Amino acid sequence: MELGALAADPVTVGTLVGALALVMFAAAWHKLSERELFAGALAAYRLLPPSSVAAIARVLPFVEIAIALCALIPATRSAALGALAVLMLLYALAIGINLARGRRDIDCGCGGEGHPLSWGLVLRNLVLSAAAFIASRPTLERSMDWIDAVTLVLGVLAFYALYLMADELLRQATRLARLAGEHGRES
Question: Rounded to an integer, what distance in angstroms lies between the CA atom of residue 125 and that of residue 64?
C-alpha cells in the first residue's frame, strides 16, 4: 500500500491541529486564571497525593500550553499530538474513576465553575484523543491555495465552536438532571 493511500489531506490535518491547539490553550487559560478553583477541583478527584496537588495544579497549564505550541510546529507535531492524546486519555480515566466511585458532584476542573463530572465528559475527552491520533497521520504533500487557507481557518473555528457548544450542552444536561432529581424528591 502506498503512503499516499494512508496520508491525510493537509487541510484536514491543519484543521484538527489548529482546533486541538485552541482547545488546549483555552483549557490552560482557565486553569491559570482560576488557579485556586482548579487546584480544588484537582484535589477533589482524590487521585494524587495531597502534597503534590498544588505543584501539579501550577505545572499542568504550562504542560497544556507546551503541547499546544509544539502541535503547531511541524517538527514537533507528531510527539505533541501523541502527548495530547495521552493527556486526554488520562483526563477521561480520572473522570471515569470518580464516576465509578459515585462522585458526580465534583467539578471537572476543565474550565469555569459548575461543570460536574459526567460520562459525556469522558466521551468528549476520548473524541479529542481520537482527533489527536487522526491528526498525527502522515500528511499528503501538495500545494495549498487561498481556498485551502480559508477552509482551514473556517474549519478550526467551526470545530472549536462545535466543541464549545457540546461542552455547554454537557454542562446544562448535568444541571437539568440535578434539577429533575431535586424536583422528584420534593414530590
Answer: 14
Res 9 pLDDT > 90: no
- Name the region of 21 (left: φ>0; alpha: ψ -120 to 50; beta: rest): alpha
Count CB atoms within 10 A of the CB of residue 153.
13
The residue with greater pLDDT, 47 or 182, is 47
Give Cα separations from 122 to 24, 42, 89, 98 (angstroms).
16, 16, 9, 11
- Sign, CA torsion 43/46/51/53: negative
CA angle 10, 67, 156 (to 5 degrees): 40
Find out whether 17 and 67 touch, Cβ atoms under 8 Å: no
pLDDT of residue 5: 54
19-68: pLDDT as tens digits: 999 999 999 999 999 999 999 999 999 999 999 999 999 999 999 999 99
CA 72, 111, 90: angle at the middle one, nearest 5? 65
Q: What number of residues does the chain have?
A: 187
HSE value, Cβ hemisphere, 13 Å, CA-based, for 37: 15
Other CB atoms within 10 Å distance of the CB of residue 87: 20
